[in-house]
Input
Amino acid sequence: MLRARSAPRSRSAPHILPGFSLSLGVSVLFLCLIVLLPVSGLLWNLGKLGPADYLQVMGSERVLTALRVTFTAAAAATAVNAVFGLLLAWVLTRYRFRGRGVMDALVDLPFALPTAVAGIALVALYDKSGWVGGVLDRMGLQVAYTWWGIVIAMIFTSIPFAVRAIQPAIEELDPAEDAAALTLGASPWQRFRLVALRPLLPAILTGTGLSFVRSLGEFGAVIFIAGNLPYKTEIASLLILIRLDEFDYPAAAAIAGTLLAVSLVLLAVINIAQTRLQSYLRVEG
Amino acid sequence: MARRFLIAVAMLFLAAMVGLPVAAIFYRAFAEGWGRYVAAILDPETLAAIRLTVVAALIVLPLNIVFGVASAWAIARYRFPGRRILLVLIEMPFAVSPIVAGLCFLLIYGAYGPVGALLEPLGVQLMFNLTGIVLVSLFVTSPFVMREILPVLMVTGEDEEKAALTLGANGWQIFRFVVLPNISWGLAYGTVLTMARAMGEFGAVSVVSGAIRGETMTLPLQIELLYNDYNATGAFAAATVLTGLALVTLALRGLLERFGPRRAHS
Output
């Protein structure tokens, strides 16, 4: 998240530079038309719904299953991203080796690759005729069109969030502390856990949080590989689209509003927790 | 030892999770030979989808640059009530899932929404056509330019701009000769990201496009359509176009980072 702290200070003599009303006017007009109005449209529809109808929509077996599939898959993907995001960030920041540039670019590829392409790529790899899917099939395992496929799609689209959030924090680690721990006879594992991991916690929290939020809302990459069976491998976003195609706008708005609220609350929690954790670690350390 | 092991594990993970799927696209696209690949790309519907995707992105880009520069300038240079709220609102599209974003637009600008219902008697339809695609693309890409420029404006400060003001420059002259050179790298970077995302957006566009074959299908939607039609080669061929675009984006990004000033982590 960007922070807007170091702004002009002089409250007594504001707006010396020209262009205030123009730049603010353009921003506010754009924001109203493109962000505020559409989002308030969703809230307005939610308001029309009423609590009883809302609960009826959200309490249906199909919606509950879709939410459970979405949340558990996002949690699993985030857990993998926490471990491998940290590993990738560590390797990319600390080591210089051949192929590092390629690895660095590969980390960003899921950012740049359209999600529909990501989805179709995963199908190409994991269905029975694919390289990995074929091998798994012979072992009696199936990833494509199951819950596991959803997890893999979510890992793919959200791994860059974890890596790029953790990298700056690793750069800021003080090598002297690690050297001191080494002199004092700490084992590699102790050095990692006590010297490196603790100061990285706020960054890991941000990275995993962002990757979880992204996974909750992921659509393109998931629907290709999910199989999309109602009550089994249907994600919440897809259910919104299905309700829309049935012109059941209130139900679509209810599910969408819930997803939106969860994402915004999570982001706020991450922001607050990160600040708290940072000041706590500073006091402790 | 630990070093080699960690590098090897990291490389294996990336190769398996990211490298292999992308390689699989190209493998599948060319599995039936070059002839089928070229024919799939030259399919009229696919060409129409490519054209629509490019046109929409070219409309989105200038609008977002104006918004991004204006909002970054307002936030960096002035203090006003609601400044922090403005920043939060600008970044909000990052947190909104694409399908939810598309639905938001449908509920307000669609025929049953308040704005859509107002415009319908006038014969203006905003959703299920190019306008709808442009609107949602504006939403999903709106934070990119601002995010790249704001840190630069914060770092450069306003001394040069004030000096220019004292020397008698007017607002546009200050912008053209002082601000623009400072933010040019950030602007270039933001432009690349906006372009790539606008051309690749799938979820939000699929809600508002109306999905009319050969008319309102952007390239990502066309991929899904071909795939559901069991035209695998066509779908993978179309996917190679967008993959190529993503690789160009990454290459441009690399060039900007190498030759541009060192970017601060944001």
